[in-house]
Amino acid sequence: MNSFAGKLVLITGASAGIGYQTALDFAARRADLILVARRRERLEELAGKVQQSGGTAEILPCDLAAAEARAELLEDLIRRGRIPDVLINNAGYGNYRPFLEEAPADIFRLMAVNYEAPAHLMRVLIPEMVKRGSGAVVNVSSTAGMVAIPMMAPYCAAKSALRALTEAVAYELAGSGVTVHLVNPGPVDTEFFDAGVWQGRRPGRKAGVRQASQVIREAIINRRTISYVPPRRGLIVYAFNLLGPLGRWAVQRRQSRRCS
Helix 209-221 and helix 17-28: axis angle, to 10°? Predict the structure, then answer.
């Protein structure tokens, strides 16, 4: 998919951060948008910007943590024949605190937003894409899904599940005309660090949302299954996994220093 003109692009988590910028960038490339997030007023603001620039955007407020709300959203899309050409599962948030301080309800909600919602949307919409013989799915994950990070256990688990799902489905759909992509940002300058609970020092260096949006588009255009933001973070993940026990020892030592 080299051109997005006239393509229908559905973006979750569109009310801020990566999703907000990605929507603007796809609109600039003459895509038609479906914008999904909890905050209606933010979606209305974004849709207004898109329309002022000559684009089209439909807003569908939805709490993706709720299975019933997701089901209603999907039923509405199917009924109206609004099957996206591009599905971008971007909604997500994380907590940074000890696992033993996470309430079960917090763990379940975090898993619902970061893993269950993308899986639900994929399972319902991909068959329609396969029938059509074309489509692309981008799951915005995290390098935390590739490397376990202390103080982010539930988030790492959810993103790790999303990584495995994305890769497996990408292999299954080879030759169907539908491509599936995983984008793994490191720290990005967004509301992520305010959306959940963050107990501790925040990252200093952060990538920009424009760079994340660019990586999303390039993943689709270049049919790249796994991408990183910024790209050099892929080398860090590769090195960590290559080191094996030594890499895990380094993480444990770093955490011990923080706690001492």
Answer: 60
Decide if 92 contacts 68 (C-beta within 8 A).
no
DSSP for 132-158? Answer: HT-EEEEEE--GGGTS--TT-HHHHHH
259 SS3 class: helix
What DSSP state is assigned to residue 188? B
The residue type at 89? N
* Runs of H (alpha helix) within the chain: 17-28, 40-52, 67-79, 104-111, 117-132, 153-172, 192-195, 209-221, 233-243, 245-259
Q: What is the pLDDT of residues 186-213, one digit of tens each?
A: 988 887 777 777 776 766 678 999 999 9
Helix 67-79 and helix 117-132: axis angle, to 10°? 20
pTM for the model stands at 0.90
Number of C-alpha atoms within 13 angstroms, CB side, residue 101?
10
Residue whose structure tokens are 């997500």: 92
Cα dihedral across residues 20, 95, 203, 144: positive or negative: negative
155 is a catalytic site residue: yes
- In 3D space, the residue among 31, 121, 27, 32 whose CA is nearest the CA of residue 78 turns out to be 121
Choose, from 20, 93, 115, 155, the residue flagged as catalytic.
155
Six token digits for residue 189? 């300058």
Report d(CA 13, CA 64) in Å as an integer: 9
List the structure tokens of 169.
């489905």
Model pLDDT for residues 56-86, shown as the tens digit of each residue: 999 999 999 999 999 999 999 999 999 999 9
Instruction: Name 178's Cβ contacts closer than 8 Å, sequence gap at least 6.
Output: 126, 129, 130, 134, 135, 136, 137
